[in-house]
């Protein structure tokens, strides 16, 4: 009985440990989608929408990890490859949304 309880505790510990996988581009794209009109300068307000802020906060949290910065940056660049936008809006938007980690201006020429 004690072995069974011990085995279950180990299993729960393993399942509760957060994964170390890098964020997928699909996840980054989903978080970025509500911000497209804002970063393109077509949004009717100077501040990002609530949905955009939630997305920027999630992206900011993904970029905090050193290894994930490059992966997230490349996903943003690939997602916006054929889009005209202002890279500074990532930085401005993250400051307005108080993301905790100011996003860099990720543009077409940014080195990730």
TrEMBL record:
Keyword annotations: Lipid-binding, Signal, Transport
InterPro entries according to UniProt: Bifun_inhib/LTP/seed_sf (IPR036312), Bifunc_inhib/LTP/seed_store (IPR016140), Plant_nsLTP (IPR000528)
Signal peptide boundaries: 1-21
Residue ranges constituting the Bifunctional inhibitor/plant lipid transfer protein/seed storage helical domain according to the UniProt record: 25-98
Any Pfam family hit: Tryp_alpha_amyl
Stored PANTHER family: NON-SPECIFIC LIPID-TRANSFER PROTEIN 2-RELATED (PTHR33076)
The family this protein is said to belong to: Belongs to the plant LTP family.
Protein name: Non-specific lipid-transfer protein-like
Source organism of the structure: Solanum pennellii (Tomato)
Gene transcribed to yield this protein: LOC107025277
